[in-house]
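Cross-posted from the bioinformatics board.
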Amino acid sequence: EAQVTQNPRYLITVTGKKLTVTCSQNMNHEYMSWYRQDPGLGLRQIYYSMNVEVTDKGDVPEGYKVSRKEKRNFPLILESPSPNQTSLYFCASSLSGATNQPQHFGDGTRLSIL
Amino acid sequence: QQPVQSPQAVILREGEDAVINCSSSKALYSVHWYRQKHGEAPVFLMILLKGGEQKGHEKISASFNEKKQQSSLYLTASQLSYSGTYFCGTAPWRLIFGTGTRLQVFP
């Protein structure tokens, strides 16, 4: 089944403890992206990747890191999480970076940072 | 800059129609529409490309006016299953999502 898989689905952690949210897609998609969703603010892009080894900042990149060493994986790293990063996170992928391609979303990761 | 969606929320009875608008301050290449049910991931509905085309998905259709940098989503004869939050995504060169329109359909 074609899908985008995120792990973990839920995480409660404490300020300053490094964490990684994994994202993997099995559709051979070139383009991958991370979003955070907060009430009233919609989906805001954190980072995106047009292809392996090519990443770029989105609209809210502060406090996050990403890497794209393989086509299928695009982990999101919070080196020193803070409470303002408590949010619902979505990974998405599409066939290419062309904006005429639909994006496929993972099921989301709900992060709570105390 | 995020596109602006209006209205922010809509309440309907089954069978009623609704229009959701999406407006951008930047020139657009395409507009995407997604629906997100509570607690779930956004799901793709349709893409509209430059050319003012209209598209349809069941009883949901949309239009795109690139000169006005606007798109509208039309939901006709709404069903309970249409409830959710609708997002437009606009693409000058990468996809930027709006803040969403929450739609609730009651029996």
